[in-house]
Amino acid sequence: MSTASTRPPEGRYGRSSDERADRKLKIAGAVLGAFLLVLVGYFAYHYVAGSEISGQVVSFQTSDDSVRIHLEVHKDADARGYCTLRSQAADGDEVGRADFRFDEHAKQVDKVVTLRTTSRGTTGELLGCHAD
Predict the structure, then answer these.
(1) 129, pLDDT greater than 80
(2) 46 pLDDT band (50/70/90 cuts)?
(3) How far apart are CA 113 and CA 126, in angstroms?
(4) CB 51 within 8 A of CB 32
(5) Which helix or strand (DSSP H or E) is residue 34 part of?
(6) Are strands 94-102 and 53-62 parallel, antiparallel or unpaired?
(7) Distance between CA atoms of residues 70 and 9, nearest Å
(8) Max CA-CA distance within the chain?
């Protein structure tokens, strides 16, 4: 005895509804994937290119109530902003933190700043620089 097939003969009635749904899902997935790729690229570009100010600590000297930090800042000539510095004691406690502004019209600024501390600091760290 043979069993009857529930599928129509191949090629007789066109594509099945499952094949049409699969094709629509593939198109929707491709469009969504392309959109997400563009979105990630947009945010990555603005994250990298949007950094107008960067800095680095060249050296620092500690004393009982302050830390002198030689800071080198790179920025666009017309950019204005500030850098946040901090110092920590030997046990890891933060003993000083301050923002220092950089409004000079130059691409590179070398400045020695004095960070006041509550006790002797053992570090002079740059936490970050931000544009206004």
Answers:
(1) yes
(2) confident
(3) 12
(4) no
(5) helix 17-49
(6) unpaired
(7) 82
(8) 100
pLDDT in tens, 47-91: 766 657 889 999 999 999 999 999 999 988 888 889 999 999 999
Task: Find the radius of gyration of the CA atoms of the chain.
Answer: 31
Q: How far apart are the two ends of the chain, measured CA to CA in Å? A: 84
Please say whether the beta carbons of 60 and 125 come within 8 A: no
Contact by Cβ (8 Å): 76, 117:
no
Q: How far is CA 4 from CA 10, 12, 17, in A?
A: 15, 17, 21
As a residue count, the chain comes to: 132
> What are the residues whose beta carbons fall under 8 Å from the beta carbon of 49, sequence distance 6 or more?
none
Q: What is the pLDDT at residue 69?
A: 94
pTM exceeds 0.85, yes or no: no
Query: Do the Cβ atoms of 111 and 73 come closer than 8 Å?
Result: yes
